[in-house]
Amino acid sequence: MKDTSLAANPYIQLVIFDCDGVLIDSEILCKRVLISMLSELSVKIDGNYFDTYFLGKSYESAKEQVSDDFGVILPDAFRDNYWEALQVVFAKALMPTKGLEDILQRLAVRKCIATSSHPERVAFSLTTTGLDTLFNSDVTTSSEVARGKPAPDIFLLAAKKMGVAPEHCLVIEDSDAGIIGAINAGMSVVKYTGASHLQKNQPSGFENVPVIDNWCELPNLYPSIFKVALSQG
Is the dihedral of CA 217, 11, 17, 51 positive or negative? Predict the structure, then answer.
């Protein structure tokens, strides 16, 4: 496995953020809605199942997993119904992860998003939380690549669109699928566990992949990517 430690590459020019569970505290909401909707189809899953098989992965991957494990093929309308239900919940309860906006404003390097969510959901989530003005159109979704996470494709495409070589990219992820994809893309990785769906202070499970559960810890790992005057304040 490639070395993703800070010592291996201190020259970060681009930070690639996952969206759900990193920028926005959404996974706990998604988990609640999806578990309820699947139960109506006699597919009984718990939070651990969601974290293991759905977290960080595309809808198609989740659909295939349900088919393999339960012999249930989700109906064609399920995805749209799930998204409609999520919009109602997101409009009421979706928030950026705590301390995120300050960190984004303090970054001295470029930033973008690479997410398994579909474009409409990302746009809605960013607008609802007010993060759309901080990222503009610098978003890459799984709809743009043949293989979703844990393949490296989405990260490589995001870096290419931003004009930055993979070895100069830092990925912030909450899921194992995303971490594997970033490592295979040859990028540095940090696992973020500050959202509501993850336990704090848990190990990353990957050699040389540090873990943070608070955004204020990121400047300690990568001080060079922050504005000096602000990062000391």
Answer: negative
Q: Where does residue 131 fall: left (phi above 0), alpha (psi -120 to 50 degrees), or beta otherwise?
A: alpha
Count the helix, strand and coil residues of the chain and give each as a percent rounded to the nearest 5. Answer: 50, 15, 40
- The residues annotated with a catalytic role in the active site are 18, 20
Lookup: tokens for 30:
């998604």
Token pair belonging to 144: 């743009």
pTM for the model stands at 0.84
| Contact (Cβ atoms closer than 8 angstroms) between residue 162 and residue 182 | no
Q: Average pLDDT per run of 10 along the chain, which is 233 residues long?
A: 46 96 92 95 93 85 94 95 94 95 95 95 95 93 93 98 97 95 97 81 76 95 81 41
Tell me how far apart the alpha carbons of residues 225 and 63 are, in angstroms, rounded to a whole number: 38
